[in-house]
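hey all, quick one before standup. I had two proteins in the batch that finished overnight and I want to keep them in one place so we stop losing track of which output belongs to which input. First protein below, input sequence then structure tokens straight from the run.
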Amino acid sequence: MFRPIRRKDRTISEEAAKELLRKERRGVLAVNGDDGYPYAFPINYLYDAQANKIYFHGSKAGHKVDVLKHSDKVCFAVYGNEHIDAAQAWAPYVQSAVAFGRCSLVDDLEQASEGVRHMARKHYPNDEEIDKVITQSAKGMFLYVMDIEHLTGKQIQEK
């Protein structure tokens, strides 16, 4: 069902792709948008390796909510781990991970708030700041979960 990476020599291991998902803070989620146009947008997220899921939050209204109600198939991409080989210092290597799956809404407000709290620990300095944000916006916020069906990773040299 999913295409393999064409350039096998650029493939990184599944474990390396999972580590990239765990480490990075932001990625791009792509959905099936209006009138057949793709819609991709940056998000903060949390990767749960044990459950093989990606969590993110959003408001209860808007383009993202509408398109996810229509089609739950999504694609999520992150990139990072840029490093330079001393032999070619002008051309860095970059890794990327691309996950395909289905996205659903966490309906239970208490479960959603706890999920957002857990996700926010990756981005906020302390629980006090997290509690402030959740108190202010919990009623207008959704928690989404992406069940990963397929994950690939690769490394390229930008030259």
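OK second protein, same deal, sequence then tokens:
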Amino acid sequence: MQALIISGGNLDMEFADSYIKDYEFACTIAADRGMKFFYERKMTPDYIVGDFDSVEPEILHYFQNVDENSRPVILQFEPEKDETDTELAVRVAVQQGCDRLHLLGATGTRLDHLLGNLHILGAAMRQGVECRMVDKNNRIRMINRGMKLRREEQYGTYVSLLPFTPQVVGLTLKGFQYPLNNAVLECYHSLGVSNEIVEEEAEILFREGVLLVVEAKD
């Protein structure tokens, strides 16, 4: 099952409208200020999660008072908590049995939130759940096992592979402009940035470690 999570970062509305048309979501979740997207689009999410310190009070009030039959489940937390609103939203999606999460509004001007959200990708990965963080220019995933990328389905032109563990061991890249064979990719090095797919299908293989896979376009 797939879930849509709208977080409170910068969100290109035209992009978001186009993106969500391509998928069927079993569960939709607004993380705090992410409920503004649903409000402006006259949509009601299944869940609203957060401490609600960054959303306009009238938007929260609206969802608290929609028709009882379509009212979202509202989970409010204290501002002094260990998790971000986005992490709580991901947790709810996993609890609902969703195994593919689409996270929009998770990038933007707050670099600390962006870096924190990258770790949330890893939290989902550890539970066997695919979580992709997407904006107008990037699709970001975290993997601990190999994967294939079809050129006709790729997101943009570039594929960057960044180690999220000190080493990624036995890295082999097939179908890329810059192939690798049984290499070791280490932190503090930019070797994996800006590769390109040159065949119909590209493959990423490795034995140990965790990779951040960033498909990007200018």
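Flagging for whoever picks this up: The chain has a mean pLDDT of 94. Residues 138 and 216 are 4 Å apart (CA to CA).
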